[in-house]
Specification:
5 helices; 2 domains; 143 residues; mainly alpha
């Protein structure tokens, strides 16, 4: 069973990514730099270029996955807000930013209308919305 999620523990570390892939590609760049300094040449320069490309690829792949997930969260929250909110607040769903949707996903249905009003009126960001949640709705699927 998962640990109950809240504001202080909802961030997630993915050990294969954060503790293996990232360190390996970063160390590889350092090795490539040292190798180029010790043995200058076209081959070692190319090794450095490939190492930097690997770092960029790893970060871009991660960012692409997070962006797709953010879009999915936006869609899920739009559907949930349509069913939970009453007019005229329902008509303002389109004014919410992606970051506000991301923060609102942790709010229970009961506190959602009040938080949506606050988010719109006070231009709250994701972090402020999460801090305002009193009845945390966990999201264990976030990558």
């Amino acid at each position: 069973m998962e640990t109950p999620q809240n504001l202080s523990n909802h961030g997630r570390v993915d050990p294969p990514f954060h503790l293996f892939v990232l360190p390996v590609v970063m160390i590889n760049v350092i090795v490539a730099i040292v190798t180029l300094i010790r043995h200058p040449g076209l081959g070692t320069a190319w090794f450095l270029v490939l190492s930097i490309a690997a770092v960029l690829a790893v970060f871009k792949i991660r960012l692409y996955a997070l962006r797709v997930q953010d879009r999915l969260i936006r869609l899920e929250e739009r559907v949930r807000l349509e069913s939970v909110l009453k007019d005229p607040l329902r008509a303002r769903i389109g004014e919410l930013t992606d970051q506000q949707f991301i923060g609102l996903r942790f709010a229970s249905n009961d506190e959602l209308p009040g938080l949506v009003e606050r988010a719109l009126a006070e231009k709250l960001n994701s972090k402020d919305i999460k801090k305002a949640v009193t009845n945390w709705r966990p999201d264990y699927s976030r990558v």
